[in-house]
Design goal:
Layout: H1 3-28, H2 33-53, H3 68-87, E1 97-101, E2 107-111, H4 112-136, H5 146-151
Length: 156
């Protein structure tokens, strides 16, 4: 599988997993405050990275403090944005370098491919924290394992 095709699959997985988490919040009725804060961070951080790749000002902060409804709205828009971004992407562009400032004001340069992989891993890491937090609060967390999504043909 080419790298771009793999990233398309990973970002489909990411969008599905974020929706699953938001659906688990709805089933819980009132998810733990920390869980909502973490999914809000996932959405905000993805927007920050998307904006860095496009050399734009991000519409959200890294820790935006969104409501459940706002998270849902932004997550759906993000899924469309990532899909459109990857659809117009060429394999050789993964090695392109992007220079940006992080939230501490430090300047960094990374490849597009490394940034895309970071986005996927960062979001999965925090979804794991959400699952742990939901379980600790007596709720059933979303089942967002990548292999589950592939086996169930939820992403291809």
């Amino acid at each position: 599988m080419q790298e771009i095709a793999r990233f398309r699959q990973l970002f489909l997985y990411d969008a599905w997993a974020n929706r699953e988490v938001l659906d688990s919040f709805r089933r819980a009725g009132s998810p733990p405050e920390r869980s909502l804060k973490l999914i809000s961070h996932i959405v905000g951080a993805e927007y920050v990275w998307f904006s860095r790749l496009n050399r734009e000002k991000p519409p959200l902060a890294v820790w935006p403090g969104l409501s459940l409804e706002e998270c849902d709205e932004y997550a759906r828009e993000l899924a469309k944005n990532w899909s459109a971004y990857l659809d117009r992407f060429a394999e050789n562009e993964l090695a392109e370098k992007v220079t940006y400032q992080n939230s501490k004001g430090e300047s960094w340069t990374d490849t597009v491919g490394d940034i895309l992989m970071h986005v996927i891993m960062h979001s999965a890491y925090h979804r794991g924290q959400v699952a742990s937090d939901m379980r600790a609060g007596g709720h059933v967390p979303a089942y967002t394992d990548f292999i589950h999504a592939v086996r169930q043909k939820l992403v291809e």
